[in-house]
Amino acid sequence: MQHDFTEGKFYQANFEAAAYLTTYYSSETGNAVEGIQLSFTLSTLCQAFASGHITGKLLIEIGSGPTLHNALIASEYFQEIIMSDYTECNRKEIEKWLRRESGAHDWSHVSKFICDIEGKRSTIEEREEKTRSVIKQVLKCDVTQINPFHPIVLEPADCLLTSLCLEVACKDQEAYQNALGNIATLLKPGGTLIMIGVLKETFYRLGKYKYSCLCIDQNFVKSALQKQGFVIQKFEAKPGPDKATNIMSDFEEIFFLVAQKTG
Ligand code: SAH
């Protein structure tokens, strides 16, 4: 069943950043009933960057929510990172971690997982410090706007990263296609898009609310990217847990893709 669409304004009014982190980012494997989806995306992202093909000066993360796991990986490869989200409490949660404020989420389990995968090139403390120095801004963004950062005009990025955002921010396939076009304008020609998403999900839970998710399949995502002038270089999907045991959400697969913007 398709649930009522929970738009950006619903997130702004109700989303609980700290609860989201406790629920989904308390361990490097993610929420236990969802399977080990977080360690899959963390290790796949580490591998993608380790390939050496994704480099440059600026990476923008779109819809980062209150999370830092992707930036903790990307900070090794980019000189500047801009984090962004629609919801104010999420941006504040990131700022809290950047300023080492008390009550900030503890990302050390994720940092350790990353350092271990990379063969301990850096210590947990070094990695987190580097991430703090590389993140230059935490901005409001709205993927439904032609310029998601309006009225700010950002220099085009070498890499765009987005995780679990477009499918919750878009009410239907047309909106998804448009949002993809909107974020694509933020990327240099030849730049790289990294996207993590869920397939066939209709909802996920947080606190007392069910948040809606646009139910999409692999063919839709691939064709939406192609229509926007992307060439897909890597697409990996991993099955989700048995739906009977997953009380938190109903995704069938989690995917990770790398695509290059042509033109
Ligand atoms: N990237 C994080 C958070 C995903 S939760 C992760 O991988 O866990 C979905 C996020 O999308 C929320 O932080 C929400 O605030 C954001 N969002 C919802 N509508 C949006 C919109 N119109 N534009 C940008 N972000 C939006």
Describe the protein.
The strands form 2 sheets. A 7-stranded mixed sheet has the order 3-2-1-4-5-9-8, sandwiched between helices. The chain has a two-stranded antiparallel sheet with strand order 6-7. It is of the alpha/beta class and about 260 residues long. Helix 3 packs across helix 6 (about 110-115) and helix 6 (about 110-115) crosses helix 7. The chain contains 10 helices and 9 strands. The mean pLDDT is about 95. About 35% of the residues lie in helices and about 25% in strands. Strand 6 (about 205) and strand 7 (about 210) form a beta hairpin. S-adenosyl-L-homocysteine binds near residues 67, 142, 143 and 144.
